[in-house]
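Minutes, structural biology subgroup

Action item carried over from last meeting: produce the structure token record for 4-carboxy-2-hydroxymuconate semialdehyde dehydrogenase (Humibacillus xanthopallidus). EB confirmed the sequence was re-checked against the source entry. Recorded below for completeness.
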Amino acid sequence: MSATQPLRIALAGGGAFGAKHVAALRRIDGVEVAAVVSSGLESATAFAAEHGVAQAAATLDEVLAMDDVDAVILATPTPLHAEQTQACLRAGKHVQVEIPLADSLGDAEACLELQEQSGLVGMVGHTRRFNPSHQWVHRRVAAGELALQQLDVQTYFFRRKNLNALGQPRSWTDHLLWHHAAHTVDLFAWQTGSPIVQANAVQGPIHPELGIAMDMSIQLRAASGAICTLSLSFNNDGPLGTFFRYIGDTGTYLARYDDLSTGKDEPIDVSSVDVSMDGIELQDREFVAAIREGREPNSSIAQVMPCYRTLAALESQLAAQGTS
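Output recorded by EB:
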């Protein structure tokens, strides 16, 4: 694709993350948000009007039939991700799907197979690879200035009711393992540059209405010898979010989204790490660049597949424990 030719991207998902992607895409030169599809035409029309998108569509199929749409970003409910990713690839559209790629290993592998057959760009929104705070640590590791010994992560939310990030009722149920753990499992392997060779998990009681575990603990070990401890909860009543402690041989670093500090709470300026402090924007910039340059993106489907294979192994463990 010519660098001067506008790249027309359609968005599926008129929710909180859809809005983040529209804002991010507006900051990328030569990109146009061509259309939006949401849960229905009324919802898509309202989103298009609010965010200045030229066209609203009733269904994803309608978008995929548009000859002038080059790519699609999927910010839709998790249970739709794998099916919609494959639909985009079959329609000849490059695709970026929000994390997780799928909620089963079989569906994830099917996405990889189709992407490899198509030769199109297929990318998954593992945003932690793009947050400047985590990029800063990654560059130190890559330069041989830091050897990661342990990654300690807390992922905490308060979701005892089935609500989305905007506090609205959700039509599907989120999952600690296949969604929230995926961020850290992939990040740990990426930061160590080493495959995960051991993974263990335990979880708390299943919620009687939501049908999922509300608390979970995961341990990982990489071939390099580095270990990771991940605690996840939907029962935590603040503070909310994900907190990362990198313990290395030459320093300790605390990351929370795009902020970074030393183990002594001394702030580290990461504003010059990349062209933006917005991880979603940097993620979308990589998607656009990979399409324009005809290359594999960071966080490609192939690159993140080891994460989903690890999640499947953990799911099997939990099933054997009789708590999944």
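Discussion: The chain has nine helices and 13 strands.
Next step: EB to file the record with the rest of the batch.
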